[in-house]
Write a structure and sequence with these properties.
Elements: H1 2-19, H2 32-52, H3 61-81, H4 88-113, H5 119-131, H6 133-144, H7 149-171
Length: 173
């Protein structure tokens, strides 16, 4: 069991390093268990958001989950279109896990800071954490398709805008 614990700790540490732009998806093993861990982090992030911030979640958690899955499909299509489909597991797992880590951090900051600072400061810090996901995901996709970091940022920003537009449309149906 200690081997499993060390492996999980190493994987989580790697995802945190990717979130800090110190590593990339090439540092994540291409195994299905990595994807299972990333999905677990995603579910935990959605659950923590729904529990800790129910009044701030405008719309529906199911729609948020659907829009997230849609974004993973678009990242997968980018991998296929650029000839790097074989990098699906480490890329999607990294995007999913790093986005989940940032969402969990967003929830913690939102809940904790709200008690010590004004709503404006808390909202700004929480928003900046979520915006950090764009360069993180841009770094991941750029390294995965062997392109310049700016190309990754453009892809991540495009997908971010697509997610927001899709979410707004679905919530207002």
């Amino acid at each position: 069991m200690p081997y499993c614990d060390r492996t999980l700790q190493h994987l989580l540490r790697t995802f945190i390093e990717i979130t800090l732009l110190r590593q990339g998806p090439q540092d994540v093993p291409s195994r299905s268990v990595v994807l299972v861990v990333a999905i677990g982090l995603l579910l935990f992030a959605f659950l923590s958001t729904a529990v800790a911030m129910p009044e701030t979640v405008s719309g529906n958690i199911a729609i948020s989950f659907f829009v997230s899955v849609l974004s993973y499909v678009v990242y997968w299509l980018v991998l296929l279109a650029t000839g790097f489909g074989r990098r699906l597991v480490p890329t999607i797992a990294s995007i999913m896990a790093c986005g989940s880590i940032l969402t969990i951090l967003h929830v913690v900051v939102f809940v904790v800071m709200r008690q010590f600072t004004s709503d404006v400061v808390t909202d700004t810090v929480a928003w900046l954490i979520l915006i950090w996901a764009i360069p993180v995901k841009g770094n991941i996709i750029a390294r995965s398709i062997e392109q310049h970091w700016f190309a990754g940022i453009a892809i991540a920003m495009t997908i971010f805008v697509m997610q927001n537009i899709t979410y707004i449309i679905l919530v207002n149906l």
